[in-house]
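Entry 14. Structure prediction run on the chain below.
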Amino acid sequence: MLETERLILRRWEDIDAESLYEYAKDPDVGPIAGWPAHQSVEESRDVIRNVFNGREAYAVCLKTDNKAIGTIELKLNGHTDMTERDDECELGYWLGKPFWGQGIIPEAVKEMLRHAFEDIGMAKVWCGYYDGNTKSKRVQEKCGFRYQWTTEGVDVPLMHEKRTGYVNAMTKEQWIFDGIREVHGDKKRYLSLLLLADEQESMIDRYLERGAMYVLEYGGVTRGECVVTDEGDGVVEIKSLAVAPEFQRKGYGKSLIEYVVRQYRGRYEILQVGTGDSPITVSYYESCGFVQHHIDKNFIVDNYDRPIFEGGKQLTDMVFLRRKL
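Output returned:
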C-alpha cells in the first residue's frame, strides 16, 4: 500500500467490483483511454481478477472512505509493449469522472514515480495517451514527463480501431533533477545533513554562506544536499555533499554531482572536491569521474578539534580530486 496526503493506493479486491462498475460504465472514462465502458458488475469483477492483478496495480482511493475511484499501475516488462527492459516500465491510470479536476491523478502519479525510482529500482518510466485525450496529456506534462514520439495508426484492439498515439517518458535522473533547488537564506536549517559530510560546525561555517547550496527534496522530504564555492582561476569546488542515511545507495549523491556539473559547465573549467584520505570516499569520487590532483598533508588533524574516522581509519590528510567541466 502507498499513501499520499489525500490518497491510499492499495491492491484491488473483489469487493471493489461495484465501485469499479460505478465509474467504469461511464462512456466518458474508458473509450478515450482505449477500453470500452463496462456493462455489468460481473465484468468489473472479471477485470479486477484478470486485468488489475499486476504486481504494481493499485486502486486509487480517498483516505476519507477507502473507496476505489480509479486505478494506477506500473506495467512491468512482459506486460507492456513500450519497453523490453527489466528496469523500465509503463505507467497507466484513469479516474472516475466525479473526481476530475481535483488534482487526484497528478498526486497519485507523483507517488508512483517515487515508488518506481526509489522502491523498485526503475531507471525510466514510460507513459502514453491517444490523440484527443487532453486530460491525460496535461497530467503527464504537469508531472514532468518528456515527449518522445508520435505514432500514427496505432491499433486499439479493445475499441476495434486505429488512433494516433503519443509517447512520453521520464528517467530517474530527470526525476531527481526536477527535485533539486537552490537554497537562499537560512542554510543552517539543513545542519543535520551538513554534519554528515563535515563533522565540525565551525568548519562548515568557513564556506556555507559564501557557497551556493542545493538540496534534493521530494514530497516535502529532503534527501540530500550539496554546497559549491567559487575558488577562483576557473575552479568551482564541492565543499559538502551528503545524502540522508535512509536514502543512501539510490544514486542521489551522483545525481547531485551531475546536476552541479550541468550548472557550472561553460562558466568554469574545473570541478574540484576535497575529502579526507578515506579509500571509501576517494574511490567514490573516482567512480564519479574525478581524478586525484593533490594532497594537503595533515589538514584534518591540524584543523579539526577531535579525531575524524571513516571505515575504522583515522583521517589525517585532505585529498583533492578534480573533474574537467
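The chain has ten helices and 17 strands.
Filed with the rest of this week's runs.
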